[in-house]
Specification:
Layout lengths: L1 H29 L24 H31 L5 H25 L3 H27 L13 H26 L24 H30 L4 H26 L4 H33 L2
InterPro entries: COX15/CtaA_fam, COX15/CtaA_HemeA_synthase, HemeA_Synthase_type1
Keywords: Cell membrane, Disulfide bond, Heme biosynthesis, Iron, Membrane, Metal-binding, Oxidoreductase, Transmembrane, Transmembrane helix
Pathway: Porphyrin-containing compound metabolism; heme A biosynthesis; heme A from heme O: step 1/1
Length: about 300
Amino acid sequence: MQQSKYMKWFAVGATVGMLLILLGGALVTKTDSGLGCGRHWPGCNGSLIPTEITKEVLIEFSHRVVTGAVSIFIVILTFWTWRKLGHVREVKFLGFLAIFFLVAQALIGAAQVLWGQGDFILALHFGISLISFAAVLLLTLIVFEVDQKFDADEISIGNPLKWHTIGITIYSYFVVYTGALVRHTDSSLICPDWPLCYNKDPFNLPDNMYEWVQMGHRFAVLIFFIWMLIILIHAVKHYKEQRVIYWGWITAFILVVLQIVAGLFVITTGLDLIVSLFHSLFISLLFGLLCYMILLVSRSEYNKRNR
């Protein structure tokens, strides 16, 4: 029991740490601190520890330190859960995902510092980190499930919700990518109005790449919102008896609304840093929750095959 308690605290720490990596990476991007340490990695401006501290150096170097420290946490958590909870079907796969995509995002970050990368490649960086965060989050939820008498056998998800869950999770990743592309192409404030680029001229199509990137993201978010609303209505109507599904989709829809509101305020406040970080936080939590819904779908399918 004591060991279980330690594992829970360690898992929570790893999850929070992974969230800090995500937000730290967003902070680096939003403050243009990616070259705070120059073209040096893992060192900073020619030395292992920076000797001259500027805002950009502090942000970039702190992000590297946090990433390194949290990476150790995640590796330990992965092997710990493999050893103690290896009998749980999803544990080994999630551990592999957590480490693989954590390494992948670190390599992309290093490549950007050393050689530079195009905007369309850089936009993948946040999404890759997001997969690692989701894997660590699910590992943590599994650690807590073991002692909470969560009965996976009671989960039963019908085909409509099953395919909606899979589809919306994949689509959410596309929405994340379009949002990252907006930032990396410096298209965040290209449109002065919201929800249209120019509200006074609603039929005017974007006339340059930056407007297309910005409005493409907004259109993708609109589809995302409508789709999530459809899923919410379906879940509320048919899954009241399965609380984890019922409340899960209600929470997911609330996060979508918060994400859209944060996106609006990002524009109206002229890229306020705190608002921008909340924008990243809400989509990170939402993607993690959608991945948990995928896990529940997987369990439901497993249960059906083994009845």
